[in-house]
Every structure is written in structure tokens, then in C-alpha cells.
Amino acid sequence: MNPKKKYLPISIMAGVVGVLLLASFPPRWFAQSQDPSTSGQQQQPSPGPQPDVDETVLVPKKSQPAPSQPSTAEPSTAQPSPTQPADKPMKINPSEVYSLSTTTNLVNVDVMVVDNNGNPLQNLDKKNFQLYDDGVQQSVTNFGTGEAPMTVCMLIEFANRNWAYLYLALRYSYDFLNVIHPKDWVAVVSFDLKPQILTDFTQDRLEVRSALDQLRMPGFMESNFYDALAFVLDRMNEVRGRKAVLAVVTGIDTFSKLTYDQILKKVKSSDTPIYPVSIVEFLAVRSPRGDNITTLQAENCLKTMAQYSGGQAYFPRFEQELPADYQQIAEQLRRQYSLGFVPTNATHDGRYHKLKVDVVDDQGNPLTIFNEKGKKIKYHVVARDGYYAPKS
User: Fold this and answer.
1) Among 74, 218, 363, 374, which one has the highest count of C-beta atoms within 10 angstroms of its own C-beta?
2) What is the fold, at CATH topology level, of the domain defined by 150-334?
3) Mean of all residue pLDDT scores within the chain
4) pTM here?
């Protein structure tokens, strides 16, 4: 051993190796916590979808100038005296401080105009939309359209209650892979007693498939749909872009902490559309008993959630219907119209405001649309039912 060589102490070398190992792991966003009680904690940034921040305008407003002072008044202390040390903090004259004021947050509404078959109608302009807040027409200040990548969280029911449900849940989930584009973001969450994040948001279709491959042995018999949906919506509120929750579920809740009214309130306050795909309908039409009260309640639950959130519910009776249903969902998400307005009622009362969107022509009359054969097209507008105003 050469005595002239110097070696770093072992503690310093271990510290350097630890820093290099930590730097090799990319930050994650969606999978910060799997406990619904920690959903309010601050998340770490990630290379995936970024939070959606409401627009806030900051206007510098200079305060009123101070009245003139008599000649006997003390001089302003804004400037340091010649005898004042250079490193001593300067005193601030309050009359020279600028104040900041904010305007009401912009309300964003994603709108789809679809025909009776659920296909989106394109080529509409800003002038073709009239938006009402509690019956009062609003001025649309922001407008956007065009094809864009979608951000989807797949929420999959995988409880140990019925093996037929498990088979359909997996089959329906795998079929969704066929409509994913390379620029789309997809996360996968399964649930029984508790939600479990199988993969964070990713643009790798193979990673999504690997997440679905983990669903082989079910755990608990409970199916806490309301709690799992709340868990996902809390995280989707921080995602921007064309986002949605694809819920492959029965719509039956067995043991959630949240009640039906509570989850509906959360659905209405969220800006994330929900697209439920029922795994009950396939079995209900083939059951000797037919539809029962449980399946009818589940169907009504999924339809209501879709309506309040601005999504659409699907009840496939045959597996062959799924490709067309998923293609329709993808087209709707990629071809939405984005409307933004500042409410004329600026009261921060925390109250729920009803929204209504109409499609009109240049004269303000209901818009008439014809197909290439000159036949009138029947259509309807899909948008969220309303929003909760902030509290002062």
C-alpha cells in the first residue's frame, strides 16, 4: 500500500453513494399514498400530468398617496442616514408599499356535443355556445377545441364476491388498451375493501398491461365503491388536460364509510367526468330472475354519477359492444370543447351553482345540424351539472 495515497473516509463515500441512488429514482405523483385519509397531503411533482390551477389575475394597485406633512414632520426613514451602518436593514415607508388584489377564479367547463349514437360533433365555434349559471347567461371568455391526449384513471372493482364479476372486470379492462394512444396518460387503481394503486400515470401501454396482470387472486369480499371513487377523485383534481375516470364496476357498494349522498356531493364538486362501464348488465339479462332491485339501484347510481360529472354511463350486454363503446369514450375525451367564464355573481358563498350549456346559431336560435345527406341530426350536450362556489 502506498502511504502517500489519500482515501476518503467511509462515511463520506457512503453519503455520496446514497445521493446517487436517490437521484436515480424519478418522482411519482399519483402513487404518493394509498390511504384515503392522506389524500389532502401535498404531493410531489412528477413527469406525469401536472396540476390544474385555476386562473388568478394579480393586479398591482398603489395605495393612496399620503397627505402632505408639515415642515416640522420627521423626514422619511426610507433612506438610510449617513451614519447608519451599511448592513443594517432599511425601514420601509408604508405609503410606498404596493398592494395586490385578486379576481374571481375562472370556472372551466368541458363540453361535448354528441349525436344520438354518442359520436362527437365537430367544427363548432365559440359563438355557438351559450352558458348559463343559475339561469343567468355568462360571457364565455376562454374557448378551446381540437384533438388532445387524454388522461384516464382506470378504477377496477376486483372483490372476492362473484367470479363472473372478476372475469368481466378483467376482460373489460384489457379491452381498453386497444384505444390508448402513445401520448395518452393512464393510471390503474383496483379496489375491494380498500383502493390499491397498481400503476402511476404512464404513457407505456405495456406498463398498464403489467398492472392489469397483477389482478389474479381477489382479496376481500367487500366492494367499497364510494370510498374508492372518492380516493381517485381527490387525486384527479390536481390533474389538468382531457381527464376522466373509467370505472369498470358493478355500481354496488357494500361497506363504504361515505354514504351515497356524500359521494354524489363529491362527484358534483369535482371537475373530472366519470365514465362507468357496468359489469352487471351482461349477467343481469342472462339471469333467470332478470333485473332485481340491487342491479336497478346500481344502474341508477352509475347513470347519476355520469350525469353529474359530465360523463356517460355504458351498460354493455354483449362483449362485442365494448370496442365501439371505448372508441366513443376516447373520441369524446379527445374532442371536447373547453369553455371558461368568470361568474357575474362573485359572492363566495360556497353554494352549488347549476350550469346549463346551449348550442345556438348566429341569431341565438337552437342550432340545426345536417349530415352529408341533408338529413337533420339529433344531438345533445354533455357537460357537468354545476359547480361549488368558493367560500370567502
Assistant:
1) 218
2) Rossmann fold (3.40.50)
3) 78
4) 0.67
- Residue 274 belongs to what H/E stretch? strand 274-278
Q: Which three cell numbers stand for residue 247?
A: 370505472
CA angle 331, 335, 190 (to 5 degrees): 55
Say which DSSP state 214 is in. T
Contact 289, 283 (CB under 8 A): no
For residue range 215-272, list pLDDT tens digits in order. Answer: 988 888 899 999 999 999 999 988 877 789 999 999 999 999 999 999 999 999 888 9
Task: Give the DSSP letter of residue 37.
Answer: G
* Residues 66, 63: Cα–Cα separation, whole Å: 9
Phi–psi pair at 145, nearest 5 degrees: -155, -175
Task: Name the 3-class secondary structure at 233.
Answer: helix
Cβ–Cβ < 8 Å for 124, 361: no
CA 392 to each of CA 28, 310, 346, 347: distance values in angstroms, whole numbers, following the listed order: 33, 27, 10, 8
**Which residues, 6+ apart, have CB-to-CB distance to 67 below 8 Å?**
none
Residue whose C-alpha is closest to residue 256's, from 54, 45, 36, 50: 36
Ranges assigned E (strand) in 88-177: 98-102, 107-115, 129-133, 136-138, 142-144, 150-157
Residues of the chain with CATH 3.40.50.410: 150-334
Are 108 and 338 in contact by the 8 Å Cβ rule? The answer is: yes
* Cβ atoms of 161 and 255 closer than 8 Å: no
- Terminal-to-terminal C-alpha distance of the chain: 73
